[in-house]
C-alpha cells in the first residue's frame, strides 16, 4: 500500500531524468549507431574510394529504393502486420511507369498510375487481412506471386526500355547536387513522420500493433487502420519501383526479388519490433544506411558476391542480437 | 416523458452461432444506483455488458438511455451515449504512454485536427490526480505494475465523464488500499448520479458497494434483489440454481509428519523464508500483491535461482536448480497466470493434460493415444471437467474448467506437494466450490498443498495454517487453534510485517 506509492513516485522520478529526446534516441538505437560507425570507420581506413563525395552520393542514391520500401514495412510492422508483396509491387510499378513514359504521358501520370496500382494491391492485402483471420504472411506471400505474374504479363517477360529523358531524370538527376531520389526520400520521411506522430491515425496505428484487442475496446477502428497501413506500404513500394525504373531507364519484370528481405532487415535493425507497436522511422533510416553502406563497402573491397550474402546475414543477426541484449538488460 | 431510469435494456437476446448466450434479458437502472451483476462464468454477464458497451450487438431487443431508444453499434456509439467500460482483462497498449492510453480513441486534437499532446498530458495529469496516482504521464504502461495498470483503466473510465459505467471485475488485481480508493470513487460517482454496473465474483464487495444485485444464469434473467434484503447463500443458490450450504471446503487439521521443511530460503526477491509443511495440510499464503508470495513459490519450484537456504523433502535435502528437479522431488506449481503460463489454449485438452506425463506413455517414439485418452477421462471424472471430447480445444472451455485442466495436468505427475497460485482467480462461485472440494479431497489422499491467494475469505476458510508475507519476508505463520485469524489480524501482518 504505502510501499506501492513509494515505488510509483520513485519510478516517476527516474523517468523524468532522461527526457532529452536526442539522448533517448541515441540510447534506443545504440546498436545500430555503433554498427554504422564501425562500418564507416573500417571502410574509410581500408579503402581510398569510400570516403569520396561521388561514392557517398551514389550510396545515397542506391539506398533510396530500400528506404521507401522499408518505411512502408516499418509502418506495417508497427501495426502488427507483415507485407511480403512489396518486391513484386516494385517490379510491376516500374513496368507500368516505363510503359506510360514511353507513351510520352506527363511525368505526374507516370508516377500517379503506378502509385495507385500499389495502393490497390495494398487495398487487397488490407481487405483480406482485416476481414479474415488469415495470417498476413500467407496473404501477402500470395499477392507477391500474383503481382509478379502481373508484371510478366504486362511486358511479355521482356524488360521495357524507357526513352523518356524527363522520366529517366527522376532517377538519375540532381537538384543543387542532391540526387532527386534522395529529395523524394526526405519528403516522404517528413510526411510519414507527420502521419505517425502528429495524427490520430498514427496513434491508432501504434495502438493496433501494441494490442489490437485493447485498441478495439477503446473505440479504435482497427480494421480500417490495417487497410490503410497496407495501402501505405503498397504505395511506397510502387514509388520505389518507379524511382528504380527511372534510375535504370527500364522497367524490368524480374526486378525486386528479395527486396522485402532488405526492407524487413532495415526495419528490424532500426529497432522495430516484429510483434508490433514498437519502433520508429528514424531507426529504419539507420537500418537502411547500414545495409546500403555494407553493400557498397563489400563491392569496394571486392568481396566475392556469394560471400556478401553471408556477411550481410551475420551483420543483421549481430545487430538484432545487440538490441536483444540491451532489452534483456533493462528488464 | 422522462423515465426514472437512466438506462434500460429490454428483451436482449444474443446467440453465437447456435449457442444462445442471452435469452430475453431485461434490466433497468436508476441514476446513482450501483447494480451488481452476478452469475457463474458463462451466465451472460459480460456479453450483456459488451452489448451495452458497443463491442457486440444484440440479435434482438432495445436499449433505452435517458428515455430515448438508442442504437449502439460501436464503442464510439457507446461513448457518445455516455457509457464507459472497465474491462476484466486489462486492456491497454503496453508500448504506449499513460496519457496515450488514457485518451486512446478520443485523442484531444488541436485546430488542425492533429493530436494535441500538451493538452493530452495535462488532462491525463488531472485524471490521475482524481484517483490519487502519482505517476508521470509520459511513462510507458509496460513499466507499471499490474495494479497500477488497473488503476489507469479505472481513471480512464472516470475521465470519460460518463453517465453509465460498467466495471467488469475491477478489483481482481488491486491491493486493499487501492480497492478502498476505488470504492471511494464509486461513492463519489454515485453522488454525481452516475449509474454503475459492477461485475464481480467477490461477494464481500457486492454487499459493500452495491445497492442492488441482478443474477443471471445460463443467459436468463433470474432476479434482482436489494442487497440489504438478501444474503450470500441466497445469491449463490440463485446463481447455481440449487441450494448450497457452503462454498468452502472443510478446514483440515494439521497432520503429524513433516513432508517439507524450508530453511532460510533466499532468492533475489525473497529473504530468509522458513516454514514446515505437514502431510495433508493446506498452508495458505497471504500478503499484499508484490509481497513475495509468488516469488517464494518460484524459488521452491526452481524458476528463480536459490541464493541460500535449504529445502528438505521427507527428511532428504533436495537440490532444486530447475523446475525438472522440483517435479522430480515431488513439487508441482499451478501458476497464477493460467493462460500465459499453464496452458496452450489452441491445443486440445488431451495434449495439454498429458504434457507433463508425456514421457510416461510414449510408445517408443509415438504418443500412445489410448493411454492419453484414459488419463484424460480419469481426471475428467475426478474433477468433473465439462468438455465435449478429449480433442476439444482448451481455449473453448470456461475459466473454471480451464483451471481444472491445469490442475489435472499437474496431478497427473502424482505430486507430493502441490503449490496453487491464485487457484480461483476469475472463476465463478460454483467452480470455486469444486476447486475447494478438490483441494480437500487431495489432502485426504495425503497430498500437501501450498495455496497462495489474495482473497482473505478463501485463505481463512480453507487453510490449516496461514503464512503471511510482507516485503519479501515471512511476517507470521498463524495457527487457527492458537492465533487470531481474523481478516484484520492477517491484514495487519501483511501491511506492517512481523515484529
From TrEMBL, chain A:
Q: List where the protein spans the membrane.
A: 30-47, 67-98, 105-128, 175-196, 229-250, 262-294, 306-325
The entry's keywords: Cell membrane, Membrane, Transmembrane, Transmembrane helix
- State the membrane topology: Multi-pass membrane protein
Major subcellular location class: membrane
Localization of this protein: Cell membrane
Q: Name one GO cellular component term.
A: plasma membrane
Q: Which GO terms describe its molecular function?
A: transmembrane transporter activity
Look up keyword Transmembrane and say if it applies.
Answer: yes
- What is this protein's name? Monosaccharide ABC transporter membrane protein, CUT2 family
The record lists the organism as Anaerocolumna aminovalerica
UniProtKB/TrEMBL annotation, chain B:
SUPFAM superfamilies from the UniProt entry: P-loop containing nucleoside triphosphate hydrolases
Question: Record's InterPro entries?
Answer: AAA+_ATPase, ABC_carbohydrate_import_ATPase, ABC_transporter-like_ATP-bd, ABC_transporter-like_CS, P-loop_NTPase
A Pfam family this chain is assigned to? ABC_tran
Give GO terms: molecular function aspect only: ATP binding; ATP hydrolysis activity
An example GO CC term for this entry is: plasma membrane
What is the membrane topology here?
Peripheral membrane protein
The residues covered by the ABC transporter domain are: 7-243, 254-496
Q: What CDD domains has UniProt attached to this entry?
A: ABC_Carb_Monos_I, ABC_Carb_Monos_II
Q: Where in the cell is it found?
A: Cell membrane
The entry's keywords: ATP-binding, Cell membrane, Membrane, Nucleotide-binding, Repeat, Sugar transport, Translocase, Transport
Protein name, entry field:
Inositol transport system ATP-binding protein
Q: What organism is the protein native to?
A: Anaerocolumna aminovalerica
